[in-house]
Design brief:
By secondary structure, the protein is mainly α. Helix content is 64%, strand content 4%. It has a two-stranded antiparallel sheet. Strands 3-4 form a two-stranded antiparallel ribbon. Helix 3 runs antiparallel to helix 4, helix 7 packs antiparallel against helix 20 and helix 11 runs parallel beside helix 14. It is elongated and about 105 Å long.
């Protein structure tokens, strides 16, 4: 296999579970389940189909004779009819009723919906597990003061846990979108070549009620609540856009998280997991590159670009059906899922092993805190009898001087010393140091973490406790 292209999504990134969902075996087994559902439905609605024929179909639902189908496709150049032929070879009694009244999209499109729905379920499971790990992290560090940044410039402080809730909230929004799309997934059903059910109306001798009932029964047998009410030969390709759009939303959130982790790792405040024997650089042995976060970003870029594929397909379909969607769908939908599967495994792995360095955080915090404490210092000086406007101008000038000392001379921030030396403030160094308590400047950050976790996340995790406890396996 080393002499031909292999997808990195399968070789390096996606889990075995997600790969199976989009495997040929899963697809063709689902085709046979759909053919069985169709035969059972037609029998129940009065067509001349025997239980013996259905039992024969069920007996060979899993043992697919791939070689026969492959040889037949070389002759007829049609994948569905090749598998109808192969199934018929195994089921001679049922041969004549396989695929009765259906068009290729009966198995192709219904299978796509079934597979995407199952894949969304796996994505949901992994997403909720990532959220659970982030919730633990946020709760553990809800009180840890840290510099916040706007424009990547030091700003009013926050806490490490509060910052983590921002990552978590993004995923919460993604979960809302995913659940909406998942709850709205329906089968195509048995709509026929242009969506009019003409062939089924013929089979059922003009009985419209039976045509409608056929859709209901097929949906029920395949585990869906209903079928889309109208269609051409295919289900609307906007469905693919909605599905891949959810994947792209998760990719956006994961990319944002990976950006923050990489910036924090540069600051040496937070670090992604780094294994004992892991090599960070082939040239620089000391390096601990954030390669997992970088991989998240790389895969996320792919998924966000991938969402254009179903959009283009949907917008350029002609009337009731064209086949220029086929090759694109075979690539864009599975690969979007495989990439997001890899992203979520990486996300879970990184959050589960995030290392926080409080001493470094505190050092950075304290270097900037004198600037942030100036408003409190000014208020204390006013209480001691100072003039607010005069003090504001003085503190502005002293801040500029301290800033120059840091930037131009490489000295420590000496703003407190400068203020203590100015008699206009009337404050001693001891009094000024009392304002240097980090927790005084984080606002409601700890309480916001508690409220968000208790009111939003914990109820969600309780509802989904049966799918928690996943551990991510990283292949490379």
């Amino acid at each position: 296999m080393n002499d031909r292209y292999q997808s990195p999504l399968s070789q390096r990134y996606a889990s075995r579970e997600m790969q199976y969902i989009f495997s040929p075996d899963k697809k063709f087994r689902t085709w046979r389940k759909l053919w069985i559902a169709l035969a059972e439905t037609e029998k129940e609605l009065g067509l001349n189909i025997t239980q013996e024929q259905i039992d024969e179909l069920k007996a060979h639902a899993e043992d697919i004779n791939y070689e026969v189908a492959q040889e037949r496709e070389k002759e007829v150049r049609h994948d569905v009819m090749s598998h109808v032929y192969a199934y018929g070879q195994q089921c001679p009694k049922a041969k004549g009723i396989i695929h009765l009244g259906a068009t290729s999209c009966y198995v192709g499109d219904n299978t796509d919906i079934i597979i995407m729905t199952e894949a969304l379920g796996l994505v949901r499971k992994k997403l909720v597990n990532v959220m659970a790990e982030l919730a633990k992290f946020a709760g553990s560090y809800k009180d840890q003061p840290t510099l916040a940044f706007t424009h990547f410039q030091p700003a009013q402080p926050t806490t490490v846990g509060k910052r983590a809730t921002l990552w978590l909230h993004d995923l919460y929004l993604d979960l809302e979108d995913l659940d909406h799309v998942l709850s709205s997934m329906k089968l195509l059903g048995s709509k026929g070549t242009t969506g009019t059910q003409a062939s089924f109306l013929e089979l059922f001798d003009g009985d419209h009620a039976k045509c409608r009932r056929a859709d209901e029964l097929i949906a029920e047998k395949m585990g869906f609540s209903s079928c889309y009410p109208v269609s051409g030969q295919t289900y609307s390709r906007k469905i693919d856009t909605r599905v891949v759009g959810v994947l792209a939303g998760i990719a956006q959130s994961a990319h944002k998280f990976s950006n923050d982790v990489r910036l924090l790792q540069h600051l040496k405040e937070v670090e992604e997991p780094f294994e004992k024997n892991q090599i960070g650089s082939s040239a620089m042995a000391y390096k601990r590159n954030p390669m997992r976060s970088e991989r998240i970003a790389s895969l996320a870029n792919y998924v966000m670009a991938d969402v254009m594929n179903p959009m283009l397909v949907s917008s350029t379909q002609w009337f009731e059906r064209t086949l220029d969607d086929s090759a694109n769908k075979r690539l864009s939908v599975p690969e979007g899922f495989l990439a997001v599967d890899g992203i979520l495994d990486l996300y879970l792995n990184v959050v589960d092993g995030l290392v926080v360095y409080p001493k470094v955080i505190e050092k950075h915090f304290m270097a900037e805190l004198p600037f942030m404490a100036t408003e409190n210092i000014m208020m204390d000086a006013v209480k001691a009898g100072g003039d607010r406007q005069e003090l504001h101008e003085k503190i502005r000038r002293l801040s500029m001087e301290a800033g120059r000392n840091v930037k131009e001379k490489g000295l420590d921030n000496n703003l407190l010393e400068l203020i203590a030396a100015d008699p206009a403030f009337g404050l001693t160094m001891e009094e000024l140091l009392k304002t240097m308590e980090p927790k005084l400047y984080v606002g409601r950050a700890p309480q916001q973490v508690e409220e968000f976790l208790e009111e939003v996340i914990e109820p969600l995790l309780k509802e989904n406790q049966d799918i928690l406890g996943m551990k991510a396996e990283i292949l490379v």
